[in-house]
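Q: Convert this sequence to structure tokens.
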Amino acid sequence: MKRMMGLDVGDKTIGVAVSDELGWTAQGVETIKRQSREKDFARLAELVAHYDVGEVVVGLPKNMNGTIGPRGEICQTFARMLEEQMSLPVHLWDERLTTMAAERMLISADVSRQKRKKVIDKMAAVLILQGYLDAQSR
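A:
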């Protein structure tokens, strides 16, 4: 079975997580510093090949009332382009509160602010992917 990849797409970084082979758990892989669309997609393609990824889940930031704002539209466009470039199914997953949840987890684990900055996007990607995996297994 192929793995799934979860992405937390931001302006400056992309948090990346992958599932185990059974699709039960998500682990953080890395935080990509965004440079250009070509370089970002090239790095994602390397990770897709390395981890034998079969599907991708992109976090979709919705407004609290469920509508999609400018950030959400950027993520939808990113997901469409990724699907075309990678020829893989790409799913959008409501990521409301995942970054806040990741931040709370890191604070409760007593992680310093500087360290939190480095891992927050990767943690958010883990929460996005884990949420999707849990919903699929229900």
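The CA atoms of residues 37 and 133 lie 27 Å apart.
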